Amino acid sequence: MNYDQILENARQNMGGRCLVCKDCNGLACRGKLPGPGGKGSGSSFMRNYQKLQELKINMDLVYHKSPINTQTELFGKTFEYPFFAAPISAVKLHYFDYYDDEGYSKAVVNGCKASGVIGFTGDGEHKECYTMGISAVKSAGGWGIPTIKPWAVEDVIQKIKTAEEAGAPAVAMDIDAAGLPVMAKDKNIGAKSVEDLRRIAESTRLPFILKGVMTAEGAEKALAAGIYGIVVSNHGGRVLDHTPATVEVLPDIVKAVGGRMKILIDGGIRSGIDVFKALALGADGVLIGRPYAIAAYGGGEEAVAMYTESIGAELRQTMIMTGCQSLSDIDSSVLWNK
């Protein structure tokens, strides 16, 4: 199986919900909700992608050569690469019925595990979305990070217990999912106060990650709640039109809380070069969503592992070409300033 075959399989298996475009930039699927598109005009999805493309890299090969190390440590685990599969759920609704959530989650979790990274699993309007993801994490020996929608606090805490029982190394909540059309109608879904978040974080021994932070002020509130880490995310542009790109707000967030909590980022990341750029802006790690879905639909866990290794190879090659021999060498100096 090669990657062209994976893409062709994905086009068939996604039933036209995702067009598997050559450039996954949000243009062809704007406003396609349910589905993989951005909300409204699609500008948030498209801006995530475009602003990453505008960042340019300084090349430097005058240095003492030594082995390249792409490993990172997060959640008390060591991973081969600093990027992970983002949570995607309700796949029958958004990506066609080739998979149910358990089948999709197993493909992602197992494929990620085979290549030394980890997959996040999702939650949804129906409880099976979460329990199927938990099942995939448990069957992989706890190698996955369950992600919970912003339900009422007691419901979130109860769901975290099942993540602990599954052996997960961490748990997340995508607070930004409150803006999804299918979720926004539920009165039990919504914003959380600092006190709410503190109760959730203190309810578990697991590192708690808050996904959906887009301002320095929001990051500082998450820090005040005692949260392990955040994901700078606008939910792939699927919850609010006309937001800035995640890479545009990342530097201010890093300035506010960097070094005091872990900072991950998603949104428009499509290549190892994109991963490198996000790290250069101060992120500790990266989540990738739609391309992992395409890989899973195109060839299951084998294709997920293949995609992971491809992105890892691109990251390693970019490090070679910039004189960065470990992830700690990647900083803002490798980005070209006009």
From TrEMBL:
Recorded hits in InterPro entries, A to Z, give:
Aldolase_TIM, Alpha-hydoxy_acid_DH_FMN, FMN-dep_DH, FMN_HAD
Task: Give the matching Pfam families.
Answer: FMN_dh (PF01070)
Q: Has UniProt tagged this entry with the keyword Flavoprotein?
A: yes
This protein's superkingdom?
Bacteria
Q: Which reaction does it catalyse?
A: (S)-lactate + O2 = pyruvate + H2O2
TM segments? none
Q: Which SUPFAM superfamilies match?
A: FMN-linked oxidoreductases
> Do you know which CDD domains this protein is assigned to?
alpha_hydroxyacid_oxid_FMN (cd02809)
**Keywords (A to Z) from UniProt:** Flavoprotein, FMN, Oxidoreductase
Task: List the signal peptide residues.
Answer: none
Q: Which residue ranges does the record assign to the FMN hydroxy acid dehydrogenase domain?
A: 37-338
Q: Which cofactor does it need?
A: FMN
Query: What protein family does this chain belong to?
Result: Belongs to the FMN-dependent alpha-hydroxy acid dehydrogenase family.
What name appears for this protein in its UniProt entry? L-lactate oxidase
State the species of origin: Lutispora saccharofermentans
The upper taxonomy is:
Bacteria, Bacillati, Bacillota, Clostridia, Lutisporales
